[in-house]
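Fold this sequence, please.
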Amino acid sequence: MGGYAAVVLAGGAARRMGGADKPTLTVAGQSMLTRVLAAVHDADPRIVVGRVPPDLPVQVHSTREDPPGSGPVAATAAGLALVPEDVSYTALLAADLPLLTGEAIDVLRLTAESAPMQGAVYRDAEGRRQMLCGVWRTAALREALDRVIEDRGRLDGASVRELMNHLRVAEVSWRRPGPPPWFDCDTDDDLRTAEEWAR
């Protein structure tokens, strides 16, 4: 596999968790953001869109969507703006995936590079695509962002679904033992579940 970049979306209001700074919440002693970045340790560059804690133990590039709080599609565009033109693939990830692993990323990368599609994402047991746990052809992501702008005139407030409507995606099932790598923490109960799995 060749090189790839990683864009980690660390914004969002975390309304169901009382407005907590969700990426900094810990699972098994490490912040969720740190755990996601560890899963893409070999990505170059690693870009965080959102607030980067001063004690983050790894070096990253950071940026913010414009305007702040304008949603995940605007955040994706801000992150992609820092990905060099010669980087063929980009992992696009939420920052609240504490069970994500390097192996899970490798599966997505191999699928994205071998399938006649524009990217690869996990599909959960209910058949839902986990759109913020995927690897994409960088050029295809950029083209999809341009199409969203053509459709609605701006990225502010656009949904991930609107972006993905312009992308052909390979769906990947996780067949290995252990927790699903796309498990995200939207509630305190989710956080407790992740903590139990991570032990």
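Helices lie at 32-39, 72-80, 102-114, 138-152, 160-164, 188-198. The chain has a mean pLDDT of 92.
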